């Protein structure tokens, strides 16, 4: 290895000598176009950093600044005299790791000689390296921060921001002549002059009444309702959630009202007194049982009122017939009207009807036989029995009967009532009703909307006592 190292030193000395010679020759010729820039670059500008030795050695052009005392001498001349100009640069710059240690001079005398020759020839680029290092450090820091920000992966969709209004839009305007569910089998308005022509918005309300707590796992007031725990999902709680979602989609006011119990009759008898308190604040309200669902969430209620020809001039209440069975008939042989779905209008007659209905089961009232409907007896209804047996016959022109197959029942009942628009699951509330809830809220929709329901509950949750404090007794 001694011979190559000696040759290396000789070669380095020759390169330095030739470099000095060319510089002196150039200076002697006094080239005006090159002398000034070379002097300036040697003082003010740091030499560019060229880390790739092999690429630089093979390049056919001269790189300014490798030897800063040399001006922009034509590249051909430099290459002809010094075929490997980069060799010198790497030999005198010990902080360049690219150089092969076997090729560098290891003898102290050779190293000292080479360093002395290099120092006499020109300042090394290493002197200008600190600013470059700082610049490189800033660049690397910027690149690292950019890279880190780009590597941040999203945590998944924000389900809290996925609201009922974003999920479903109304499929028709309130006065459109036809409604096509998913583009097929249309329903048509009976008149080309619909009664309701504009959305009612918050002038229309949807009401849930409940005396039960419903706070066990899987129920509406528990922390979680999810199909991951499908055995816990509570059917009537899913119905309640359906009512709230329907209200949100169409911009209606929603109420969830905790009612008090009666000591001598079923809690459902609270309907007339509590509903009248809320109706006074709106033009139209809908009461719907927790085991009933809005089967077409994209269909506005105003369109349905046009479809059923419900008019402010001639109808205070609208209710559907019950299925055609013997136990659903009153003493006159007529089918009961189901009070689990009612459309109510803010009219004086409505409050008159409600007051008589509320008083129906009291002792000494206008309808003595109504007391037997205070509580269930087999298939006999309670508040619905009193309403259907007595009240509706007092106001035949104010109460509209709706088709059972459109506003009551469910297909599996095989009762002729399929729940086309309003699905009412009176039996099988812990299996059939849960299946119905799953059909309208599949996958993550159930837990997503349930969480939003709980978050917004302060805006719609109230009680019978609160209503009395605000408005006084209903009559």
Name a few traits of the molecule.
single chain; about 475 residues; alpha/beta; Spore Coat Polysaccharide Biosynthesis Protein SpsA, Chain A; 2 domains; seven-stranded mixed sheet; two-stranded antiparallel ribbon; Nucleotide-diphossugar_trans
Describe this structure in words.
This protein is an alpha/beta fold and 475 residues long. The protein folds into 2 domains: 2-130, no CATH class; 161-471, Spore Coat Polysaccharide Biosynthesis Protein SpsA, Chain A. It has helices at 2-29, 32-44, 53-58, 75-81, 85-91, 108-121, 129-151, 164-167, 235-250, 271-279, 301-307, 348-359, 383-394, 404-407, 432-440, 445-456, 464-471; strands spanning 178-179, 187-188, 204-210, 253-258, 284-288, 292-294, 317-320, 341-345, 399-402, 422-424, 461-463. It has a 7-stranded mixed beta sheet, with helices on both faces. It has a two-stranded antiparallel ribbon with strand order 1-2. Strand 3, helix 9 (235-250) and strand 4 (253-258) form a beta-alpha-beta unit. The longest helix has 28 residues, at 2-29.
